[in-house]
Amino acid sequence: MIRKKFLLLFIFYIFFIKGVNSSEIGIYQKIDLFGEVLEKINEEYVDEINQSEGMDSAINGLLQSLDPYSAYMSPETFKEMQTETSGEFGGLGIEVSMEAGVVKVISPIDDTPASKAGIKAGDYIVKINDTQVQGKSLSEAVDLMRGPVGSSIELTVRRIGKKKAIKFIIVREVIQIQSVKSDLLKNNIGYIRLTSFNDNSDKQIKKKIKEMESNQEIKAYILDLRNNPGGLLSQAIKITDFFLDNGEIVSTKSRKASENRKWFANEGDLTNGKTLVVLINYGSASASEIVAGALKDHKRAILLGENTFGKGSVQSIIPLQNKGAIRLTVAKYYLPSGKSISEVGVLPDIEINEMTEDFKIKSETDNQLNYAIKLLNG
Q: Based on C-alpha coordinates, what's the Rg of the chain?
């Protein structure tokens, strides 16, 4: 039975993923070879293997060979993911991907255990407690990081620019994501921080802007998208629209021409065209890059900070018959200029890097925010 499943999986890989003619690679010979390898593993491997786990690994390996964001979710993982997207879950508070067989931090979420411990965007998690991450799938690594609320975990990370690995002991907590924060800075500068693109982020931002516009003599705005790993495309479009009167916001291109789409801004800038600075860094990804890139292309905002992550692709969650699912990349984002975000990101107009190792967003050590304030006051 398991051999049959592996053969079907291999045929799917050849015809639908590779898209090549069977005569070009000797499809039947490859199928026979695949079956032979499988039999040898089952009969002669030193330890008895769990055939179900082996199937999951084969499926996941196939998907992860496509790009870092496509992956297989077992029924248990899929169920946990659905719980997490409700806005409250137990964990560390980091968005991660896989790069070269190692877990890479896209962004730590504000006010979560990972953020408070000092985990940074771009860190590579090489060990979880005593377990090496190399060779494990992303879902397996994520499972290792999960645990009861209140329990501790040790993460060993490699950080660019640091010769030695850094160890963090983090206590798991219930993660409650509040996506919008705001403040009135000196000299009537409105500050809005968006940490993720959730179901009602647009309503929260709209409310904050209207409050500032009606109650204060706001002269300019700072939109802080640093360490925002993204979220809903619909929210990125709505929030970008708040600052534009017209023009294209983003487009997607997929394998199927019928699914290619473009989104445009409606008339009505909620800030009445006031000066806007958008703060970005390496932890700004996906939906954050759409907002920042569109506002830059329309010359509506000054982008300040660091180059963004470069996650310019669209993933769909496709349920499977076994109650699991696959996360599959189905399209790529393109900015109004026609540029792709994938693996390139969005460049700031003014590059300001984090100044110190103890850098913390919206604190005395936040030299990027301080520069933006000076820029607006100047």
A: 23
What are 328-341's pLDDT values in tens digits? Answer: 998 899 999 999 99
Please choose, from the candidates 299, 285, 301, 282, the residue with its C-alpha nearest in 3D space to the C-alpha of residue 352.
282
CATH superfamily of 180-377: 2-enoyl-CoA Hydratase; Chain A, domain 1 (3.90.226.10)
CATH number of 76-176: 2.30.42.10
297: annotated active-site residue: yes
Residues 162-171 as b or e (16 or more Cβ within 10 Å = b): eeeeeebebe
Rounded-to-integer distance, Cα 95 and Cα 225, Å: 15
Any catalytic annotation for residue 181?
A: no
* 340 tagged catalytic: no
The catalytically annotated residue of 56, 311, 313, 366 is: 311
- Active-site option among 110, 123, 202, 297: 297
pLDDT tens profile 250-292: 999 998 888 899 999 999 999 999 999 999 999 999 999 999 9
Active-site residue (options: 196, 286, 288, 313):
286
Q: What are phi and psi of 251, to 5 degrees?
A: -135, 155
